[in-house]
malate dehydrogenase
Amino acid sequence: MDYTKLLQKAVVTSCSVSLFWKIIRHMWSSMNVEKEPVKVLVTGAAGQTGYALMPMIARGVMLGPDQPVIIHMLDTKKAAETLNGLKMELIDGAFRLLRGVVATTDVVEACRDVNIAVMLGGKPRKDGMERKDVMTMNVSIYKAQALALAQHAAADCKVLVVANPANTNALILKESAPSIPEKNITCLMRLDHNRAMGQIAEKLKVRVSDVKNIIIWGNHSSTQYPDVNHATVATSSGERSVRDLIADDKWLNTEFITTVQQRGAAILKARKFSSALSAASAVCDHMHHWLLGTPKGTWVSMGVCSDGSYGIQPGLIYSFPVTCKNGQWSIVRGLKIDEFSRAKMDATANELIEEKSLAYSCLG
């Protein structure tokens, strides 16, 4: 229906107020068509991070306030009862964007037609375990899940690996499902990025939203390199360099870096549980910017497949500064790298090269 012509006619003929508003209501309802629901898979959903993440997804924190979602939750048979309890809570939450919940221990059912996959499930390293033992278990998990995603997920499914070792688990998934475009496989570095922004904001006593363009380079481990050399803070006199405002290179090159690197361990020691709330928030931030875009002039840190940028070995899942547009990420080019940064970036790359070699030996 051509509402423009109807309105013009209404004005010309001096129609009644009630008819005028009837036309307006019809116009509004025609424009306010609900979007198709997005299917979001969360593996390892019965854990603490899954418990924190589900209401965020259902409330639109991840995909926006007008995007309906159907949540697919996957966990082990041992966690089936807990998973069912979480499904009941999601239903009881009466979330206006939630259009359905699938709670299952079947990887094929979980992966069917999903548009987004958030991989929380994995085997963490525990006391007395060798690195190869952990890697072998994760290879088994991620090979099976990669195959299910490749065969049953939507063709353009975006995958975010969170379970540690996140970078190498993402690498295993990439190698196990070559039909999934490597640009669609990422790992979570946004938690470290947010931690770094939080430390700078606290140091300068500014809002965290005023801090931008921090970079986390490398691995989601204690070798990662939080880099403020290109970061700025919005002030009343305009944007200013973080280094200039803090004016303490010693703190920035030592305590700041180690605080961000070891933040997860510090939270584990304080809570007796690993980071869950902040990790869930970071998952939402990561997917929100990947799918809906980064603000102009701003980048974020994402673990993505290296194309050789900044001298990093191609094929590694390495954290770079990226911008996002139309559901695609692009590595920020041409940033100046000083000698101190180069050494830090290479050290974390070398750790990832070792992990890659170990993963390949487990893959056979």
